[in-house]
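User: Write out your own:

AI:
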Amino acid sequence: MAFRLKGVVTKAYGGFYYVSVGGETLQCTLRGVLKHRKVDVRVGDLVTVMRSSGGAVVEEVFPRKNVLVRPPVANVDRVIMVFAVKDPDPSLMLLDRFLIQSWHEAVKPVICFNKRDLLPDGEIDFIEAYALAGYTVLQTCTVNGLGIQGLRELLLEGITVFAGPSGVGKSSLLNAVQPGLSLKTGEIGQKIKRGKHTTRHVELILLESGGLVADTPGFSSLHLPEIKKEDLCFHYPEMERFIGNCRFTGCLHRVEPNCAVKEAVSVGKIDSGRYGRYLEILNELLERERG
């Protein structure tokens, strides 16, 4: 007897698709017609599985509400962007690019500054800048438990992706959220100050609380999505309330006179560091348009 079941793809590896169905994980192959159509099946996809004595087969892949390119996860409810405050030092340019990608993919971003115990209280200006911009910002530390309960509460429902460079403590945070998870953790090389890659493929982990999380491979670069130069400013929530007051429609907030965004930067209403990185990314888009 065959049963048709609905579940979520939690891992794709070695030609098999592992689907979570009612708390059980089924190892599935892909129906021949889906292979013929070259249907793209990703972690996070909602699928229909036909289960019989001969095994389990993915028969249908439902439409996605969104999909991330890197990491390749579908139907994401939020991305938690993890950066260490030290060891390794945070790349705020990389973080800003993450935030642009998240906005472009219509996925809620949460910024998590980990290893908070390594940073004196007097050096948190860059953390406060993101909170001022309107983002949800967590400060965490697995040594003393700072922020772990707040992080745990964010993971209660839906699919959450943990993203960020290697060595920032993504796996350690997940182990702190659910003790006993025993994900691998890597130490930071003392010479090169970069983390070892401890996660080799994308996999959704079902937490005891009911949420699904993806502990993704560490990476340190991110291509910008296709954005028009005039639209880049709309990816910066702290700029939005000033944009309408600029003298020129389509203002790039770079060299134009009577620019409300530049004025907001000059009086401290927009973080100057964020604005400086905005200009760098804008120049990248301008170079891209020139071909």
Observations:
- The chain is about 25% helix and 25% strand.
- Confidence is low (pLDDT under 50) at residues 184-199.
- Residues 229-290 form a domain with the Ribonucleotide Reductase Protein R1; domain 1 fold (CATH 1.10.40.50).
- Residues 83 and 89 are 8 Å apart (CA to CA).
